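Reopening this one. Same input as before:
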Amino acid sequence: MATKFVDHVCNSKIMLEIDKSNKIEPRENLFVNLVFNLAIPILILRYGNDWAGEKIASLLGKPPNSTSVASIILAVAVLFPVCYGIYDYLRREKINFFSVLGIISALLTGGIGLVPGGTVFMFALKETAIPFVLSIFTIYTLKTPKPLVKLFLYNPAIFDVEKIQSHLSTNGTVSYFEKLLSKCTWLIAGSFVLSAFLNFLLARFIVVTEPFVDKNQFNEEVGAMMFWSFPVISVPCMIISAYTLWLLIKGVKNYAGLDMDQIIGSHLQK
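Same output, byte for byte:
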């Protein structure tokens, strides 16, 4: 759940991917992604007890405000992003790195809320750890032939990479463009660090009820955090990503000498 802002960034870039044989592969639908990873879990966590608490309690033979009822509601909320991640893999037969992170995050949220000994501080650390680890991984990729910026932005699904690289070589500006890619990579890493910081603050401010004290209230607070995380966390990160994309497009124009309609992949123009 802490990595949903990553899905916003990745899904906003394009709804299609092109493989090596130029075959158009289906890409996960942004609306469906948001529904299963954000909207449904929020609704279940915030209103699940009001909607189905009594029925679940009746089936279990326990009071509506019991820990068992709240645990089932939390488990159902976590089940939606997990099932969506599995469905996406089966449909596209392709591992989505960010869906995997989403599943791990959802399972950790469920584990903290369901397993005895889970605390709100552990939840805050979990919300902070995943984007922070992503920032470290992003910086690490600078030492590899494929920095993470090429996955996020500079990839054949958006740009005509072969044409751009050809013009860069002709103009002798490959090294300048590589420095630009490094700068863009640091900006993406910075957006992850910002997300980690805001995640921690938001979690400590909103999720204050220990799950072993009142699991129903804990569920509602987790749902509330998910709701507020979009304007507080995702929007600033998307602004940074949009600025990074603008820098990249400007750099392609300056170093490769190509206009916008020349650098966008031909499959998008069609």
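So the earlier flakiness isn't reproducible anymore. For the record, The radius of gyration is 21 Å.
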